[in-house]
Amino acid sequence: MHYRNLTRGLALAAAIIVVGTSSSQADAQSTRQEYAEPVQVKQDEPLSLKRKIAIGRFTNETRYGQTLLRDSNLDPLGKQAADILAAYLVQSGDFLVFERGDMTQIASEQERLGGADEDMVGVDTLIIGSIVEFGRSEDGKRGLFNRERTQRAHAKVAIRLVDVRTGLAFHSATGSGEATTETKTTLGMGSTARFDGSLTDKALSVAIEDVLEELSNTIQAREWRTDILAVENGQVFVSGGPSQGLKAGARLAVMKAGRSVKSRQTGLSLQLPATAVAGLEVVSHFGSGELGEGSIARITSGSLESLDDAELYVVAK
């Protein structure tokens, strides 16, 4: 009897120990899991800021279209290529594209509205391009009962990117494209299309598409900068806002332009490297529209006291 009671007691104690151990292990495991899980820190998203660009010139340097296809502005093929490139750049939504090719027409419209606007927005990069190759060809096969006709158009464009501040062409690229159309007839049945004028448009579009991604990546890799509008009560007002990709929390750096010195080797003036004088963080925005927006930032490091605003500009970190 005593043996049975002792056995029951030992079994009950063992169960308690097992349950207690299991509970303790579960608590410990839960605690380890709680502290083992890494804290998720949300990383700042990279800024995607719009650069200001313009197409300065796009000309046809081939013999194609130099006589019959000329209009009053003398270069319809070059204008067409410029329009295609501008349309692609605008549709991408990555740039602020300004008109330069039709400045005469813009000035005329501004005069009708009460005078020309002298505050034309300056761009960061000017795009200069030309059509360096263009041609059309036609092949045909004629059999006893069938006929085939193939029309081809080939285009090649060369484009340069120019830094407006220095006039230096910092990048060049070429793109080529081809478009074809085929017609077939058998026993007089089938397509009998004549000269396909749309091949010119298609070949130019493909040639520009061939180089567009390279141009876009090159422009976006360059430094984005803006200017300081005012410094009041510890707040810094800068040009640009959400429409240009400048968001709250963005980190900016205020740079002081290096002084200009004359090189005795080349006889030209060189600008010494800029230096960072302050750090900024965007806290809010004001205004509306891509060109009418501004941002309010706080100073996170450095100082803007006793500095000439004309020597300062702002870049994205």
TrEMBL record:
Does the keyword Translocase belong to this entry?
no
- Keywords, A to Z? Cell membrane, Lipoprotein, Membrane, Palmitate, Signal
Q: Which Gene3D superfamilies match?
A: ABC-type transport auxiliary lipoprotein component (3.40.50.10610)
Q: Does the keyword Cell cycle apply?
A: no
- Superkingdom of the source species: Bacteria
Tell me which positions the record assigns to the signal sequence.
1-28
Task: Provide one Gene Ontology cellular component.
Answer: outer membrane-bounded periplasmic space
Which Pfam family is one of this chain's hits?
Answer: CsgG
What protein is this chain from? Curli production assembly/transport component CsgG
Origin species, per record, is: Novosphingobium pentaromativorans US6-1
What gene does the UniProt entry assign to this protein? Answer: csgG
